[in-house]
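User: Could you check the structure of this?
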Amino acid sequence: MRFLIIVAAWWLPALVGAGDLVGPETCKGCHPAAWANWKEGPHARALESLPPARRADKRCLSCHSPAAEAGMSGVGCEACHGPGRRYVASYVMRDAELARAVGLTDPGEKTCLACHTESTPSLVRFDHARKVKLIAHPTAAAPGAR
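Assistant: Sure, the predicted structure tokens are below.
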């Protein structure tokens, strides 16, 4: 039965033709503390951190607003945790194994380094251990995750 749920959760959205992104506002419903930390953090304002002349440059948008074509600004939850369509249902999120099986990812340093590279314009070199503290938010394993 569990296998059928996984298969249905994985393939049904693709068959219906729905987009895979659900957006940060959807995440906010169940994770208000994490959403509030994101909203006040650098990722939510990543697009605005670009000079106005660069805000339409696809090379910049790939990191500063990866879901711009879907109408989302900045770096949302799904840029790090994977597209949410398949794991957004509450019954899926209550089952960590199932959520991961259908696409929820636990981002790590490698995820960050996809955008924070040696060629990224910055005054200081990217230090994952220091920077990850700036975006810390409650998780399912931490109190107050909801």
